[in-house]
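FORM 7B: Structural annotation worksheet

SECTION A. Query
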Amino acid sequence: MTRSSRRRTMQVLPWSSPACAISGTELMRNAAALIALVLAAACASKPDPAPPVPAAKPIVIGEQRVLRSVTLGDEREINIWLPPGYGQSNKRYPVLYLIDGALAQDFHHIAGLAQYGALSGSFEDLIVVGVETKDRRAELTWRSTDHAEIRDYPTNGEAAAFRKFLVDEVKPLIEANYRTSGEDALMGESLAGLFVAESFLKGPATA
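SECTION B. Predicted structure
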């Protein structure tokens, strides 16, 4: 029994042969088509650019002055809220002096209530003046006679100095720079409320 075999041969054509010859123009055309295909794929996969972020700008609700107090021996933050239309009229306004009136204290929400009252007509337009306190136990209390309280709060009892600061320094500052009507009110909560009550009892003109 014989087995026949076939030999397969592979012929390699030289580059110079007519079958392998590619013109320079055709080569450039093919390369350009390949580049265009790659660019199209890249553009198709690139996400849409994010919309520009709107520029931020501050919301202004009032003015701030830093008052160097001779009475207290340091600087205090004084924040002022003016009613709507203040800049468009010559009207004079009553003033609400707010104890604990720093930005980190009660100024924002009391100014907000005043704005609500002005816009809704719930109460008369007024100027809100927030006065910063620092050592509340000292500035808002009268001198205690309780030995335990004196021991725990040795700085207590300086309300008279803080009241002098309000009358002699804060009030003149406001009256010199804003259109005030001469009608004043004093407002505070917690220890500041006690300060308001004491001020009314000791000198109604300051409360």
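SECTION C. Observations
The radius of gyration is 41 Å. Residues 1-5 have pLDDT under 50 and may be disordered.

SECTION D. Sign-off
Analyst initials: ____
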